[in-house]
Each structure stands twice: as structure tokens, then as C-alpha cells.
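Q: What structure does this chain adopt?
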Amino acid sequence: MQKGLIGKKLGMTQLFDANGNVVPVTVIEAGPCVVAQKKTVENDGYDAVQIGYGDLKASKVNGPMKGHFAKNDVAPKKVLRELRLEDCSAVNVGDVLKADIFAEGDAVDVRGTSKGKGYAGTIKRWNFARLKESHGTGPVHRHGGSLGACSSPSRVWKGKKMAGHLGNERVTVQNLKVVKIDAENNIIAVKGAVPGPKGGIVVLFDSVKA
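A:
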């Protein structure tokens, strides 16, 4: 990873490319982010930088975090994320990273928290097919069906696709193209959808499969 930013998902819209084709994009307010801490092999066992996004009132910061920000002389931030960059020497504590660290045409991965959908059945959660609507199926058309053999192994295998909690988990969408950048307003438009609701926090970084 060479660079990364924390941002906020603003929503989706569409842009037109040079040929007049419609491109669906997600608009992200990416940055400004401040480098709040640098980790080194000598002190922490690995190289990384911690970046912060979103201003926060000092009255809403607890004691340990006040000390953390004060130690590095950085204003309190709402969101902190750690990035393991290939060259951490290129940035220093207090540096401000903005949307212009990326360029149009770059490939990025976007990581966020997916929308939580609560308890969901097998059809919604795993795309199961419904059972027969007639011929003795009974009032269980949307149930999961058989869970396995009756005698061996006489139990349900771990990881069996069943009803349960859906969403609200970390998701990374890979290899999205940066379509447009508004450096003045720290806005990045990436092709396609990214995880989470409007206003959700996301992290953009170099695509690992570009």
C-alpha cells in the first residue's frame, strides 16, 4: 500500500465519460486527513501510520485519547485508522493528506461497514430458492429445508448456511476506478458501489490487484 485516505460516503450519482456513456459512481468526501501517529519497527514491531478524519470537540474526548493527541500535537479527530504503507518515511506526524493524493484513472480498494439488516432468513441471506408452493409442503415455503443426514454425522456442520444476522460487517470492494476528483472540495467519485449507507465511514487505498 502506497497511500490511503479516510472518507465519508455521500451517495451515488452518474457521470458521463468522453464518449457520452453513463458511468454510475459513488461520491466520497475523502479527507482531509491528518497523520496522528507513526509506528516504527523499533518501537512497535512494524511500520505504519495512523491517520485521523473529522474534527471533534475536546470536551468529547476521553482522557487516554486526549493524551494520545496531545503527545503528537494533533487536534482531536473522530475517526482513526492505521495504514501500513510501503514507505512510511514519506509522511510525518501533522501532515495533512487530501483527495489529490489520488488521480483520475487510479484503481482503489474501498473498505467500509455494510448496512445492517438484522435477523434474516435463508432466502434473503443466502439467496436460497423457495420450496414448492403446493403438494404438501405446508406453511414452510421460505424455510431452509433439510440440514443434513439423520444418522451420520447426527449434527449440523459448522458453517452451514442458515438464517441469522445479516450485514453490519467489514466489506472491501476491490479494483474500483477513480472517475473524477474535485481536489478543492476533497471529493472523489469512484465507479460502482461501495459498502455502507450514506454518511458511512470508508477507507480508500491502493488496489492490491490493480
